[in-house]
Specification:
The protein has 275 residues and is of the alpha/beta class. It folds into two domains: 30 residues, no CATH class; 239 residues, Metallo-dependent phosphatases (Purple Acid Phosphatase, chain A, domain 2). It is 26% helix and 27% strand. Helix 4 runs parallel beside helix 6. The protein is globular and about 60 Å long. The model has no long low-confidence stretch (mean pLDDT 87).
């Protein structure tokens, strides 16, 4: 933690770090905004959405071709909205030796890489949150790359850091980029997260990034999905004993027009890409 007590301290750190006053204040205040709740209404009681996460663009292990193929499949099936559960980019300095697994360096350069290379399909919008890799730039220099990406890509809507709710016809999908590594059982982390949500705050769908694994199950009447990833097995994942699951989900959701906005059925389908 920076020891800042006077204006002279502020000037000293701005000079040492090579950042602006605004960036320094962003670092000091940390994450202060509440999770976003985006509400929308559509006529159909049956609709489709896509789910992706951990694309880690600018990583030497990125699966960009597979990501584009997934978006093309979503367009073919009439999906108009895809939700991204965080870690759009690889970031920098996330673990020892990561510099050997990143091919684009610097916050602005990684933003430009996303602007140029992230899938752009006519008629599809991507709603995304930022994860720990994205926010390494926030922690280092007060730069929120989510804001910069959204400013340059009108088809990419930034919903905030780590968590956001998207509500369509009363059906809430919660995007969450949790902390920590993979536990001994595939569903353990998401199960414990679901248990921590109070009854009055439960989403209909809980979509989790960060874990690089893929699973669907229903628990506490929450449709829980670990969204998979689009980054191959790096040396870091290999050392952690994690075999990433490459792909994304297409969900067909049917609702009942009742006060609880009950999900009558949710048909999840994982579009997988072998490594």
């Amino acid at each position: 933690m920076l020891d800042i007590q006077t204006m002279e301290d502020i000037k000293k750190y701005i000079e040492e770090l090579g950042i602006s006053k605004k960036q320094l204040f962003n670092i000091l205040k940390g994450k202060t905004q509440p999770p976003v709740v985006l509400k929308k209404s559509i006529k159909s009681k049956i609709f489709k959405v896509g789910l992706v996460g951990d694309t880690h663009l600018a990583s030497s292990k990125e699966k960009r071709l597979e990501l584009h193929s997934f978006y093309a499949q979503c367009k073919k099936e009439g999906v108009k909205e895809i939700y991204h559960a965080g870690d759009v980019v690889a970031g920098w300095g996330m673990f020892f030796g990561q510099e050997n697994e990143v091919k684009v360096y610097g916050a602005d350069n990684q933003v430009e890489y996303v602007v140029e290379h992230y899938p752009k399909e006519t008629g599809i919008k991507t709603y995304f949150i930022t994860g720990n890799h994205d926010l390494c730039w926030w922690n280092k220099s007060g730069i929120d790359i989510g804001e910069k990406i959204a400013a340059k890509r009108s088809d990419m809507v930034y919903l905030g850091q780590y968590q956001a709710d998207i509500e369509i016809n009363g059906v809430t999908t919660r995007l969450l980029h949790p902390d920590g590594g993979n536990p001994y059982a595939l569903s353990y982390r998401s199960q414990k997260i679901a248990e921590s949500i109070s009854s009055g705050d439960k989403p209909h769908i809980l979509a989790l990034g960060h874990l690089h694994t893929s699973i669907y199950y229903v628990y506490r009447n929450i449709h829980i999905i670990q969204v998979g990833c689009f980054e191959g097995q790096s040396n870091f994942l290999m050392r952690k004993g994690i075999n990433p699951v490459i792909g994304g989900w297409i969900l067909e959701i049917e609702t009942i027009d009742d006060p609880k906005n009950t999900v009558l059925s949710l048909s999840p389908r994982f579009v997988a890409f072998p490594q």
